[in-house]
């Protein structure tokens, strides 16, 4: 079974600064997807960024980028120019592309509460 | 973009009663829907996976007779919490996936259930 670990329960950053959220995972598969989701106080889950394991290039979406280290099974999220609206709980998630009972199921990390201070 | 709705957004029920939560995909056909439970400041815990027209697959430790899931159409799945107890109070989130070439799950806004 896959596991996803976020070792930072809480983080804080000043507005306009950069912050990096850590995520490690464990899997024996070679083909999978990784995601970062944001859950603001409204509790609506919002997809921030996705990474296909077969792609070596790190994904980027505006101020959000990832550092994907496949061999180390690490998938960190960098938020540049932090904004007050980035305050939320962030979840790293793994999705297998293989068959079997885990097919299509997201495995979430424990989450990191990020607070952006003015 | 793909939109998933949930109804109701909040519900309060008395202990021993049943409550139904609906999850709808508004602009796409959801071949698979997922139901999660989330406690405050914790992660999402997958309860079950439902495919349209077939029985739901429950995760280990989830009582299938207590949490009844029906996925009768490609746009609607329901979760019924039967004989609710205060410990069932939680935030329930559904997500939907269109397996036709995409791996993304689209999440509903969640339902806060309080059992008194």
Description:
The complex is a heterodimer of chains A (118) and B (116). Chain A has no helices and 12 strands. Chain A is an all-beta fold. In chain A, the strands form 3 sheets. In chain A, strands 2, 5, 6, 10, 11 and 12 form a 6-stranded mixed β-sheet that branches. The model of chain A has no long low-confidence stretch (mean pLDDT 93). The termini of chain B are far apart. In chain B, 33% of the residues are buried. The chains are: A mainly beta (118), B mainly beta (116). Chains A and B meet through β6 and β10 of A and β4, β5 and β9 of B.
Shape of chain B: globular
* Mean pLDDT across every amino acid position of chain B: 92
> How big is the Rg of chain A?
14 Å
Query: Mind telling me the C-alpha Rg of chain B?
Result: 13 Å
What overall form of chain A do the CA principal axes indicate?
globular
- The helix content of chain A, as a percent range, equals under 10%
Give structural attributes:
heterodimer; A: 118 residues; mainly beta; 6-stranded mixed beta sheet; 4-stranded antiparallel beta sheet; globular; B: 116 residues; 7-stranded mixed beta sheet; 11 strands
């Amino acid at each position: 079974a896959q596991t996803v670990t976020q070792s930072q329960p809480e983080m804080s950053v000043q507005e306009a600064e950069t912050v990096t959220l850590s995520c490690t995972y464990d899997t024996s598969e070679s083909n999978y997807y990784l995601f970062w989701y944001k859950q603001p106080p409204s509790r609506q889950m919002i997809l921030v960024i996705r990474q296909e394991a077969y792609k070596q290039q790190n994904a980027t979406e505006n101020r959000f980028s990832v550092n994907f280290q496949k061999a180390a099974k690490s998938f960190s999220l960098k938020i540049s120019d932090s904004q007050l609206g980035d305050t939320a709980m962030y979840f790293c998630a793994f999705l297998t592309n293989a068959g079997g009972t885990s097919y299509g199921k997201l495995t979430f990390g424990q989450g990191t509460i990020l607070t952006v201070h003015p | 973009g793909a939109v998933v709705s949930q109804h109701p957004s909040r519900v309060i029920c008395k202990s021993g009663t049943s409550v139904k939560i609906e999850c709808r995909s508004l602009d796409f056909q959801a071949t698979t829907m997922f139901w999660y439970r989330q406690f405050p400041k914790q992660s999402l815990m997958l309860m079950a996976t439902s495919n349209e027209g077939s029985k739901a697959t429950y995760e280990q430790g989830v009582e299938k007779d207590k949490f009844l899931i029906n996925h009768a159409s490609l746009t609607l799945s329901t979760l019924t919490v039967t004989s609710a107890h205060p410990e069932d109070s939680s935030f329930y989130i559904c997500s939907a996936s269109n397996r036709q070439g995409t791996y993304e799950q689209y999440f509903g806004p969640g339902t806060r259930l309080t059992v008194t």
